[in-house]
Amino acid sequence: MTDFESIREAAVAYIGIDFNKSSGSVRRNLLKKGAPESLVEDVIRYLKEIDYIDDRRAAKRVASRYQGKRQRSRRAMIDVFCRNGIEYEVAKCAASVLDADEDTALELLAASFSTTADASEINAMRKLLYRRGYGENTVRRAIAAFFDPSFID
Questions:
Q1: Which whole number is the average pLDDT over 37-47?
Q2: Helix and strand totals (H; E) in the chain
Q3: Which of 22, 91, 111, 149 would suit a FRET pair with 85, their CA atoms being 20 to 30 Å apart?
Q4: Boundaries of domain holding 26
Q5: Residue 131, pLDDT above cutoff 80
Q6: Where is pLDDT greater, at 151 or 9?
Q7: Mean pLDDT across the stretch 80-91?
Q8: Taking a C-beta distance cutoff of 8 angstroms, is the pair 120, 88 a contact?
């Protein structure tokens, strides 16, 4: 068995039947096992060609985990995608098709605060939205819409 074949087998064993692993996570795994970088790149290229690795598919899976109380802004999701081994350009593209920040910020507030929340919780709301990567205007609009749903119209 050649080095390429043994590295390919290690990659396939790591991916398993999941098919949702990113190229970056496979690369990290193989390099951690001591595989030569040039062969790792060849194996990853091969696995992409046969659609065994697809960063877009991996990004969809990652995005599906960030709903409700785990919601993030599009900008923050790019970072999440990259930390999960998804290439930057694919991460930007995947984030661009996510729901608008205005919508996800309001969804995050609805999932995190009761409908009887009052003005005393505004600071907690602001902190939560800022931590999740939302900008000042989005934060203001989401909080206003949370307290007055007619604000959206």
A1: 96
A2: 9, 0
A3: 111
A4: 4-53
A5: yes
A6: 9
A7: 97
A8: no
Percent of the chain with pLDDT over 70: 97
Q: Tokens representing 49? A: 């060609």
Q: What is the pTM of this model?
A: 0.88
Where is the domain boundary, 38, 53, 68?
A: 53
CA quadruple 22, 99, 78, 109: dihedral positive or negative?
A: negative
Q: Is 76 found in the same domain as 21?
A: no
CA 114, CA 3: separation in Å to the nearest integer? 57
Tell me: do 44 and 61 sit in the same domain: no
Instruction: Check whether residue 16 and residue 80 sit in a common domain.
Output: no
Domain co-membership, 89 together with 33: no
Burial degree of 82 (CB within 10 A; 0-12, 13-18, 19+):
middle
Instruction: Assess if residue 35 is contained within a domain.
Output: yes
Q: Assess whether pLDDT exceeds 90 at residue 38.
A: yes
Measure the CA–CA gap between 6 and 122, rounded to whole angstroms.
56
Residue at 16: amino acid letter: G
Amino acid at site 30 = L
Block residue for tokens 């929340």: 117
pLDDT at position 119: 80
